[in-house]
Each structure stands twice: as C-alpha cells, then as structure tokens.
Amino acid sequence: MIPAEFLVVFFGLMAAASWGAGDFSGGFASKKANVYGVVLITQTVGVFLLAASAYLIAEEMPPIGGMIWGVVAGIFISIGLLALYHGLSQGKMGFVAPVSAVVAASVPVIFSAFYEGLPAYYQMLGFAFALVAVWLIAGGGEGLEKIDRSDLLLPLIAGTGFGLFFISIDRVSDTAVLWPLTAARIAAVVTLLAFIAYKGTVSAPSKSVLPIIIVAGIFDTGGNTFFALASQAGRLDIASITSSLYPAGTVLLAWLILKEKMTHKQWIGVLAALIAVILISS
After folding, report:
1. C-alpha span between 247 and 260 (Å, rounded)
2. How many other C-beta atoms are found inside a 10 Å radius of the C-beta of residue 131?
3. Cβ distance 9 to 238 under 8 Å?
4. How far is the C-alpha of 8 from the C-alpha of 17, rounded, in Å?
5. pTM score, two decimals?
6. Taking 60 as the threshold, does the pLDDT of residue 192 lie above it?
7. What is the C-alpha separation between 243 and 248, in angstroms, rounded?
8. For residues 228 and 23, is the Cβ–Cβ distance under 8 A?
C-alpha cells in the first residue's frame, strides 16, 4: 500500500506542475488577447471537463453542503484571480506575484495548524524552504522601487483568495472531487461574468490564440483536480505548500521553450524547492 505521506506530496507536485503549465500557457495567450477573456475561457473549459469527467466515472454527487463548499471555493478563486491580474496590470510584478503566492501557501498552513496540529519539525523546516523558493522563483524583489503600504492590498487579497480556495476544497474533498470542483468553476464563471459586465473590459480572442487558451484551461483544471486529490490523501498544509510551488513550472517552461533567462535568485529558488520537497516528504 502506498503511504499517504507519499501520495499527498506526489499529488501536490502534480498540481504544481499542472498549474505551472497552465499559467505559462495562459500568460503566453494573455500577451495576444484580453486577459479577462483568457481567464473566463479557461474557467469555462474547466466546467465542461470536470462535469464530463464526473459523469463518465459516475462519481457520486456529494451532499448539498459539499456543493456549497464548491461554490464558495469558486467565489474565492475568482476574487483571487481578479485581484492578482489587477495588481499585475499596475506594475510591480516582482512584488505582486511572489507576495500573493506566499500568502496563498501560508493561509492553509495557519488554518491547518489550528485544526490538524503542527506537522513534524523537519516538515515545518520544509515549509520555510518552500516559501523562500516561491518568493525567489516568482521574482520577489526584482527591479522594484519603494513599496507603499497600499501596494500590499491587492496581492494580499489575491493570496488570501487562493488560500481560502485551498481550504474550501479541502472541506469537501473527502466526499467527492469532480462535482465540487465543477460547482467551483461554475461559481467562478458567474463571478467573472458579473465583473466583466460591470467593467465592460473583455473582447473575444482570435482563432489563432484560442487553442492556447484551451490548453491553459485543461492544465488549470488538472491542477485543481490534483490539489483536491492531495488534500484528500493527507494534511492540508502539505498539500497546499507542495501545490504552491507552481511558479517553478512556469519559470522553467519559459526557460526551456521561450529561452527566457533565469536569474541567480530563481536558480537558488529551484534548489530551495528541491530541499523543501525532500524535507516535506521525509
């Protein structure tokens, strides 16, 4: 029998890899299309993929409470996405992206400490290495001038939204995976549509970009599914920390495919991530 400790780390890393590939594809598409249109399509792709998968494997519908948690998760993830992209659009990407990622990883860890107790000391050391890795890989501190307190608001909202999404999915992952995630995606799509209707800032992407957006949606959906499996297999804090290493996948793909140069800090972050995985999975 495969140990639960191995499964939670394995599924968490699969979630990180899938989300990293999704962010790479979505980021590439966003350079050629309206960003809110890209996000809306990726979330919509998830609705059909998850619902079809749940139907094909005949996953049992969870209690109504589980579906409600799914809806709550979808609202949180949409708030996180909107805050993140709004923050990125204002510049200071070397601050917004890493702060939101670190907060997203930290919120479930704090929650888990109260409800599941503290993990082993070497795993907590691994958490510390992981948070450092996320900050460095995501480009923390690169090319920044003075940071004002007001600059913290959007990345904190984004990170908190993502962290609460992790917690919400964990609340229901013991009873079902795909149907709650479907409810989450539907809620996210509705929230995004309401925002877009209010802002009026969306346009349809060109046919040449659409396949890339669909690929991003597939990878993003895979990340959500693997995270739900990780939280089902073991502790929420381990699942969220390992899943939060997704910036490594995005940066490494940009290095391999787009030939973008990685900074010394990012390579140190990759090393820190490897150390974190070893400690967390010990």
Report:
1. 14
2. 21
3. yes
4. 14
5. 0.88
6. yes
7. 11
8. no
Range of weakest confidence among 126-135, 147-156, 209-218 = 147-156
DSSP 2: -
- Which is it for the CA torsion 275, 253, 258, 217, positive or negative? negative
d(CA 137, CA 156): 18
d(CA 37, CA 31): 12
Identify the pLDDT of residue 149: 63
In the three-class reduction of DSSP (H, G, I as helix; E, B as strand; rest coil), residue 92 is classed as: coil
Closest to 155 (Cα-Cα) out of 170, 167, 144? 144
Burial of 196 (0-12, 13-18, 19+ CB in 10 A): middle
Burial of 59 from C-beta contacts in 10 A (0-12 / 13-18 / 19+): middle
3-class DSSP state for residue 189? helix
Q: What is the pLDDT of residue 221?
A: 93
- CA angle (245 as vertex; 239, 251 as ends), nearest 5: 155
177: DSSP letter = S
